[in-house]
Design a protein that fits this description.
Layout lengths: L4 E4 L14 H12 L3 E5 L4 H11 L4 E4 L4 E4 L2 E4 L4 H12 L5 E5 L3 E4 L23 E3 L4 H4 L8 E5 L3 H12 L4 E7 L2 E6 L4 H12 L6 E5 L5 H6 L2 E4 L5 H5 L3 E2 L7 H9 L7
Parallel strand pairs: 1-2, 1-12, 2-3, 7-8, 12-13, 13-14
Antiparallel strand pairs: 3-4, 4-5, 6-7, 6-9, 9-11, 10-11
Helix pairs in contact: 1-9
Length: about 280
């Protein structure tokens, strides 16, 4: 089969441990684009970062962001924001948990009760972005102050270093009917609207492009990549992924520090004559 679309997670997949795209990966991606294969970056990161990175590689690359809550569908952008009731529920949790921080993200703003923290904010990219793609940060806000700004929130990052407390918050959010926690790590997890995930966004993009999922390669390394790996015509786990992710994939590639993306593209996209 000639695969027509490649969907790539970023952290731990396309990006190496230095958070850079290797020259081998970059060249293989451009070779695929030159053959008419669609490339999508599929990430939990916000649009500002994904679009910036895509442009650094090749402007033909498209993006699915915020774990599937924001994506490009043809010439338009589709967003799946949290309801105002769900946002208020999260603010109530925050009000009652003084050691917890939350980052409420929409297309152009990040609002948080945390102090400025470059690990989670993207203002440093604004100088390299056109005005319509920039993302401004608003830090050190109380829950009451946050409530005045939270329109069109597509994703929330919850950060808590107390692991039992983090698990308690995760369980609270998981029980809420219109919220979906995803990608739980030792100190944090993401929250999107119920029904939102990378796999669903990819399927909608495929419908728009008149492709079947059998024509798609998906690559990832994290728990929030499992659904897209299982749904794809070829699901690829990186060598640095954990065993659960590898068990969900069709193929295990070299790690993100070993040009694993290029290895997959050379073996499954670029060895077949272009038609």
């Amino acid at each position: 089969m000639m695969y027509q679309m490649v969907c790539l997670d970023l952290d731990g997949t396309l990006l190496n441990r230095s958070r850079a795209v290797s020259m081998e990966n970059r060249k293989a991606l451009i070779d695929c684009l030159d053959r008419g294969i669609y490339i999508y970056l599929v990430t939990g990161r916000p649009p500002c970062f994904a679009r910036w990175l895509a442009r650094q590689i090749d402007p033909r690359i498209r993006v699915i962001c915020s774990n599937g809550a924001w994506y490009q569908l043809g010439s338009k952008v589709v967003q799946h924001p949290l309801s105002s009731q769900a946002v208020q529920f999260l603010l109530d949790i925050l009000q009652n948990s003084p050691t917890t921080t939350m980052f409420f993200k929409n297309e152009h703003h990040i609002y948080t009760n945390a102090d400025h923290d470059d690990r989670f904010l993207y203002d440093h990219l604004n100088a390299d972005l056109p005005p319509e793609e920039r993302c401004d940060s608003h830090t050190g806000l109380s829950p009451a102050q946050l409530s005045d700004h939270l329109d069109q929130v597509v994703k929330v990052l919850v950060y808590e270093e107390d692991r039992p407390r983090l698990q308690q918050i995760y369980d609270q959010i998981q029980a809420y009917p219109t919220l979906e926690p995803t990608g739980c790590a030792p100190v944090g997890f993401d929250v999107v609207a119920t029904g939102v995930d990378k796999a669903h966004a990819i399927s909608l993009v495929c419908d728009d492009l008149h492709l079947s999922m059998e024509q798609v390669i998906c690559m990832g390394d994290g728990d929030n990549d499992i659904q897209m790996l299982q749904q794809a015509g070829l699901g690829v786990a990186m060598g640095n992924a954990d065993d659960l992710v590898k068990a969900s994939a069709d193929v295990c590639a070299p790690s993100n520090d070993e040009d694993g993306v290029a290895w997959v593209l050379r073996n499954y996209c670029l060895t077949t004559p272009n038609t």
